[in-house]
Specification:
Layout (H helix, E strand, L loop, with lengths): L4 H21 L10 H14 L6 E6 L7 H7 L5 E6 L3 H14 L4 E4 L11 E7 L4 H11 E11 L3 H8 L3 E9 L7 E10 L2
Parallel strand pairs: 1-2, 1-4, 2-3, 4-5
Antiparallel strand pairs: 5-7, 6-7
Helix pairs in contact: 1-3, 1-4, 2-3, 5-6
Length: 197
């Protein structure tokens, strides 16, 4: 995926806003602020490089500081994809709205609610990073993904044991894309989620 000048500019604005807001609301670990580009932006751009929809809707759940939701929305800003960022923390939701305004992301909206309280989103794609263990995420995916939709779940080094645990109560298909930024981590591309082992 070639990153355009507009994308680079938007990502620069986003990084500046993280640095500005982070001391107040802890969007990313303070120890990683100096290396936002590699540790967070490059990490999340991996999701944008995977095959998502050319059009339709994308939900990022537990958005926090917008990782990966904002990064993916910036990368796909020229595509007719609408994004919903679900974030329960009011201060983080305010941060996300500021980023959306400052970067001119017209097709991105913030839903300031707990994911458990959100009616079915019927999203073509769902993304999340460090939100919950895979078995718990499955109920969110079953409710909020379209039948043909897929989820991109950013998982750490324990992802294989999470898959084994989730398989005890859920049926699903998945492809593990090895992380380019964190050895042993993976982005799980999940589809066909249905309850029952």
């Amino acid at each position: 995926m070639i990153v355009s000048r507009e994308t680079t500019e938007r990502l620069g604005i986003y990084q500046s806003l993280i640095k500005l807001w982070n001391p107040k609301i802890n969007l990313v670990a303070p120890s990683t602020v100096a290396n936002i580009g590699q540790r967070h932006i490059e990490d999340c751009l991996q999701v944008a490089r995977l095959q998502g929809p050319e059009q339709g809707s994308w939900a990022d759940i537990g958005s926090g500081g917008g990782l990966p939701g904002i990064v993916v929305a910036i990368a796909h800003a020229e595509r007719p994809i609408s994004f919903i960022l679900v974030e329960s923390d009011q201060r983080k939701a305010a941060f996300l709205r500021t980023v959306i305004r400052e970067t001119g992301l017209n097709r991105v909206k913030v839903l300031n609610k707990r994911i458990e309280a959100v009616p079915a989103l019927n999203a073509d794609c769902i993304s999340t990073r460090a939100l919950a263990p895979l078995p718990r995420l499955m109920s969110y995916l079953e409710l909020h993904l379209t039948a043909s939709g897929k989820a991109f779940l950013m998982k750490g080094r324990q992802w294989t044991s999470e898959v084994e645990e989730a398989r005890k109560t859920w049926n699903f298909d998945y492809v593990a894309h090895p992380s380019r930024t964190e050895p042993g981590a993976a982005i799980l591309e999940v589809s066909g989620v249905r309850h029952g082992a």
